[in-house]
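Study this pair:
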Amino acid sequence: MDGIDDVGQGFLADGYFITAAHIIKDCPKCFVKIGGITYKPIEFTPVFQGERDIWNDETQHDVIMYKFNKVPSPLHLSARKVTFEDTLRSYCMSVRYDDKSNLYYNELSVEEVILKNQGTENYLWCEANRFEGSSGSPLLIDNEVVGIMHSGNNNGICTFLKVRSFILPPEPRKYKLFDKPSEPWTPEYFNKKAEEQINDAFE
C-alpha cells in the first residue's frame, strides 16, 4: 500500500484485501497495487472495519477488510489459537527508499517469529523483526493467517491482532464464512452466529 509520503502493507486471503485499520485512517489517499492494477480503498466500502486505538481498550480490532472479486488469494484466514509450539513466520515488505529516484523499493522479508505472550484479549505479542511501514502484514502458520501486525517497538516486540478475534471457524454446510450479514457485522453478530452453530450441532 502506497501513499504520498508513507508506505503500509496488507495481504489477500479468501478473496479479501486485509490491512490494519489505522493505515487507512492515517493515510486516506493511499492506493493498493494488485497484479498491476491500482485500487483506492477510499472508493470501496469495507465489509468489516474495526477501531485502530488499542492502547486504552484491547478488545478493539485494528483491521479493515475489502472484498475484491476475482483476485487470486492463496492465503486463508484461520481462527486457530496460536500456541507456543507453533512455527510462526512474518511476511512483510522491507521498504527501502531511494532518495535519488524518489521511489520506494519493496523487498519481501520472511522472518521466524517467536510467541512471547498470548494476551488475554484480541492481541498477542511476539519477538519479530519490524520494518518501517510493516503494519498490516500477516503472521502465518504455513498458509494460514493467524495474526495481523498492529505495531512494534525498538526492542523487537511486535503486537499482532488475533485473526480468531474477528472471524469464526468455517462451517460450509451451515454457514458460509463472510456471507453478507443481515445486520451490522460486529463482534456481537459473530457471537450470535457461533451460538447458533453450537445449537445446530447438538440438535
Remarks:
- Residues 77-165 form a domain with the Thrombin, subunit H fold (CATH 2.40.10.10).
- Helices lie at 21-26, 187-201.
- The radius of gyration is 17 Å.
